[in-house]
Amino acid sequence: MKKLTFTLAALVTSAVVASAQERAVRPEIRPFVGMYIPTGDQRDLFDDAAMLGLQAALEIRPSFHLLGTFGWAPGQTKYAVSEDNVQILQYDAGLELNMVRALGETWLFKPFLGFGGGARTYLYEDDNLKNRTCAAGYGALGAEFEFNRAAIRLEGRDNVFCFRSPLPDIKSKTRNDVGLSLGLAYHFR
Length: 189
Prior knowledge:
about 65% strand, eight-stranded antiparallel barrel
């Protein structure tokens, strides 16, 4: 596993260095709003919730971005001991691969595919439930409509993560949920 991680890191680093020599790296800031939608067994424990977040990205090439994302969903639990609030935090780093197509003279259409990993934290307001953090990964699909330095973004994420129950003596399980978001992007030059 260490060898695979090192190899992937070396490939990404060499791609970034080679790309940076060709053109200037362009930073972006991307606030978003959306919906957190639990699926499968996760739906038995949590309700749908609004989601807010922020991404920071580096456009290495028009078709390749490195990004970091922080998302927050003020959720509601369905545990028998409590139907209280829970703050769901997800933070991750990833890659985004874009196609770039001109729409007329001033608009760009950028459909994208992304993936990455990080962690997710559940902060429960009920004292009977223990706060937990576990690893998370995602795959994303979406599109950006860019006009000059600003853009509108639509993104769907399929999140896969280990879920550690806030109740004692229950093992971790792999779970899944979906995030749908609408956001803005500002491209610095």
